[in-house]
Amino acid sequence: METPFSKSGNTQEDLPPKTKPGIGGWLKKNLFSSWYNTLLTILFAVLLYFIGKGTFGWFIDHAEWAVIRNNYKLFMAGQYPPDQIWRLWTCLGIISALFGISAGVWKGTARHLAVVFCLICLLHLLMPFISASSKIALAVLIAVTVVGYFAGPLVPKGRAVAIAGWLLSFPVSVFLIDGFGVLTPVGTNLWGGLLLTILLSIVAIVFAFPIGILAALGRTSRLPVIKYFCIIYIEAVRGVPLITVFFMASLVIPLFLPEGLNIDAVIRAMIGATLFTAAYMAEYVRGGLQAIPKGQREAAKAIGLNPVQTNLLIILPQALRTIIPALVGQSISLFKDTSLVSIVGLVDLLGIAQTVRSNPSYLGHAMEVFLFVALVYWVIASAMSYTSRRLERTLGVGKR
């Protein structure tokens, strides 16, 4: 039997044995490797001790979490009618089933996302101020995800079913939330809290993606009309802050509409957020296009592909793969910036926090309110960031 060789040409017997430093070795290497690192470690440890002591002391002894318990439904769904809450639970049930089926079909990153979804549901389930009916609904969501995971591989053409389900989930959810005359109508003026924040973010991200790709391709077009139109759009939108775009969408869009036609304030905010995000995504996509070597286009042309086929089959897949971190960063930024819609009269999650804080019954509890809102934003943004890292690892971004 031949002795295996390493890449350097040495046999495994010649290489030094692999050793694990252990906890003591890790501490010495990373925290106490020199006298100044030791001093910094001690100073930060003392600082963290006093910060942690004050924080946990306030958290346990002084915080009044009744302000969260009594307004939890308001934080999550705003003024959505309580007797119609079943529609929101149905939407979540569809999403949980799709998470489970996707995890069972694709495994890998999809399975990790399903686990994260179940952990978020479990976290809410363990909160003491959640009502019994909500706890039952959360337990059902977890069960549906698990059942979908095991049933997914048994579904014929499971991947096609999962993709079709995700594509249909958004219009079905919007139908359930609004009613559109079939179910009891629930006006957008009653949408609020986390529900409005998530809807604004999803609509802006989903619709901004194709618009951004078209704008990026248009900017590289040889037709001057298309090229300069895209340049003016991208640079004009990127040159103003998002708060200005929300004002423009709220005040200017109605001026261009025919008499008698009115667009809802929520739809106007969605249009503004979509156009703003699309301008940034267009620049990210343009950067990805420039990163693709010219030889790729020449090779595609050599095998007889036309420009459309070259972009769709060769260039765009590679360009989009390289800009995943930037796209996810922009999505996380938009999710947090949706809090600016409060200036045009919409009450998102942060707007609900401001309303609750102004309630005379809860004066002096602003810390609890904003800490809870920050926790919700952090959990969702961290889940998006985790998804990005898993996707990058799966696609080998930066490695191949």
From TrEMBL:
CDD domains, sorted: TM_PBP2 (cd06261)
One example GO MF annotation: transmembrane transporter activity
GO biological process, one term: amino acid transport
Family: Belongs to the binding-protein-dependent transport system permease family.
SUPFAM superfamilies: MetI-like
Entry protein name: Amino acid ABC transporter permease
Membrane-crossing segments per the record: 35-52, 85-106, 113-130, 136-155, 162-184, 190-217, 229-253, 265-285, 339-356, 362-380
Location in the cell: Cell membrane
Lineage top rank: taxon: Bacteria
Alphabetical keyword list: Cell membrane, Membrane, Transmembrane, Transmembrane helix, Transport
Domain ABC transmembrane type-1: 194-388
GO cellular component: ATP-binding cassette (ABC) transporter complex
Membrane topology: Multi-pass membrane protein
Pfam annotation, one family: BPD_transp_1
Signal peptide residue numbers: none
Chief place of localization: membrane
Biological source species: Sporolactobacillus sp. Y61
